[in-house]
Amino acid sequence: MTMDETDLRLDGNAVAGMLAELFGFDMTVEWGGCAGCGATNQLGALLVYAHGMGAVACCPGCGQALLRVARGEGRWWLDLRGLAWLQLDEQARVVG
Amino acid sequence: MGGFVSRGFRGRRRAGAEQATRLPPGQYAETGFPVLTAGPTPRVDLATWRLTVEGLVARPREWTWEEIQALPGSDFEGDIHCVTRWSKLGTSFAGVSVDTLLEAVEPRPEASHVVAFCHGGYTTNLPLEDLRGGKAWVVWEHEGAPLPAEHGGPARLLVPHLYLWKSAKWLAGLRLLDHDAPGFWESLGYHNVGDPWREERYWGD
Amino acid sequence: MGRLSWRLATVAEVRPETARVVTLALEVPGWDGHLPGQHVDVRLTAEDGYQAERGYSIASAPGSERVELTVERLDDGEVSPYLAGELRPGDQLELRGPVGGYFVWEPGRGGPLLLVAGGSGVVPLMAMLRHRAATGSQVPARLLYSSRTIEDVIYRDELDRLAAAGDGLAVTHALTRAQPAGWSGYARRIDAVMLEEVGWRPDEHPLAYVCGPTRLVEAVAGQLVALGHDPARVRTERFGPTGVP
């Protein structure tokens, strides 16, 4: 079957587990600002391209990558340059 | 969870004995051609398509689609290896040798590295030596058919002796530099060279 | 450690739902509960250390005795044929979670509720409906569920029972490839006309949850917004390139 990025595109849910392991809580409900266009979104609403090399989470408005993550040999690499700011809720827990 | 093994799980891997000797360490043979993408597929109009080779060269040059098709063609037949562990054995691509392009632009003596830059913003870096000597191509055909957009069409870089993330899709040009400039994945933990036979997957490998 | 990283679950039961779909009932030591709509990541490890990971939505309502995952076996899949073909009661499974608080509905969030599912996308929505029933919620809810054929409808009997309970839930099926004799329901893919006929009006301000193959989810989300629904009240969970119903 021919597949293009439409079929492969996911949302922030797809990186929920990975981000929970990195940050210690569920990031999909937290809000972030796009450094490109200024749009604010919950991370769960970001458009995600993910495969074995890593994942890129993009602004649903302008398409710019807010967050890039890769993992290999016991290390994580995280590039958050596309995130102008991140709002984290003190009450944030992994469950809800 | 060191040591846990899922009973009876093997994954998709299936390699015959002959294939096993052709596989770099840690790879398995894949009959398909998985699509890995880090963003939307660029749609490039052939009428405005250009390939640029610039930077530390005596004669920076731009080719249109017609011009690059008119260059002496070159084919590759062999194996490609993805850092996500699949290898596709015995596949073929057609296009032009990067040697042909480099001859036209005359790299300066101090040029040591290259950045491949692409529609959609992807970049990857390589030593110039890895693009020379019949080791690299710009290709627009895969197994006899036009390269599909999801695999990098209209044209991609092909450097089959390195991991496939170096074979940049939707190629727009090559820039010659006197220093190494990490690209999209190389600035996120992936190796600057990426030799599958030395398993150069990540920083420090 | 704990819920933030991988832990071992034991398969208690493997229950077929349809020809290609099974539900795994898992015992998960130390499970702290979950919210309807959340998922877990599952990781498989081969003897030589090769690993594959995938996410699966939790099908069971919070408070259920076991954590249930419903898995569709994809022909060219790597993980699903193992989960929905090889796993037996007594086997163990590594999982991480629950995560995914973004795609969650609880009665406290109100409604009315519009749930749109393509194929196995019904799984997280089923957790929402099971929780709704278990808590006696009267929040009006409508499920529009697209499947290839009647035999592919997951949870068919249970959905019939929930819809017959008279507590404000309506279930509408769309069968896209083949319909049984006498079928008077929708016989095509979900489109804007169907959403308008089945769903709530924009001025009713529904909360919408759309889940299934990416193509279906993006089409439906776009159609809902084009019909006038508030994009901030439409949540999506794309499953990627599964077979399109």
Write a structural description.
The complex is a heterotrimer of chains A (96), B (205) and C (245). By secondary structure, chain A is mainly beta. Chain A has one domain (5-87). In chain A, 12% of the residues lie in helices and 39% in strands. Chain A has helices spanning 5-8, 16-23, and strands at residues 10-11, 31-34, 40-42, 47-51, 54-58, 65-72, 75-79, 83-87. Chain A is globular. Chain B has a single domain, classed as Oxidoreductase, molybdopterin-binding domain (Sulfite Oxidase, Chain A, domain 2, Alpha-Beta Complex), CATH 3.90.420.10. Chain B is 9% helix and 30% strand. Chain B has helices at 17-22, 65-69, 98-105; strands at residues 28-29, 50-55, 61-64, 74-81, 86-97, 113-118, 123-127, 137-142, 145-146, 156-158, 171-177. Chain B is globular, with a radius of gyration of 18 Å. Chain C folds into two domains: 2-99, Translation factors (Elongation Factor Tu (Ef-tu), domain 3); 107-238, Nucleotide-binding domain of ferredoxin-NADP reductase (FNR) module (Rossmann fold), CATH 3.40.50.80. The radius of gyration of chain C is 18 Å and the shape is globular. The N and C termini of chain C lie far apart (39 Å). In chain C, 48% of the residues are buried. The model of chain C has no long low-confidence stretch (mean pLDDT 95). The chains are: A mainly beta (96), B mainly beta (205), C alpha/beta (245). Chains in contact: A-B, A-C, B-C. Chain A binds chain C through residues 1, 3, 6-14, 16-17, 20-21, 24, 26, 28-29, 42-45, 94-96, and chain C through 3-5, 32-35, 38-41, 55, 96-104, 213-215, 218, 235-241.
Question: What key attributes describe this structure?
Answer:
heterotrimer, B: mainly beta, Sulfite Oxidase, Chain A, domain 2, six-stranded mixed sheet, 9% helix, 30% strand, C: 245 residues, alpha/beta, Elongation Factor Tu (Ef-tu), domain 3, Rossmann fold, 2 domains, six-stranded antiparallel sheet, 18% helix, 31% strand, globular
Task: Give the low-confidence spans of chain C.
Answer: none
Number of strands of chain B: 11
Give me the strand/helix succession of chain C: EEEEEHEEHEHEHEHE
Helix run count of chain C: 5
Structural class of chain C: alpha/beta
The multimeric state of the shown protein is heterotrimer
CATH topology term of the largest domain in chain C: Rossmann fold
- Return the CATH class of the largest domain in chain C: Alpha Beta
What is the overall shape of chain B? globular
Low-confidence stretches of chain B: none
Distance between the termini of chain C: 39 Å
Bin the strand percentage of chain B: 25-35%
The CATH superfamily of chain B turns out to be: Oxidoreductase, molybdopterin-binding domain
Q: Give the second-level CATH assignment, the architecture of chain B.
A: Alpha-Beta Complex
Number of helices of chain B: 3
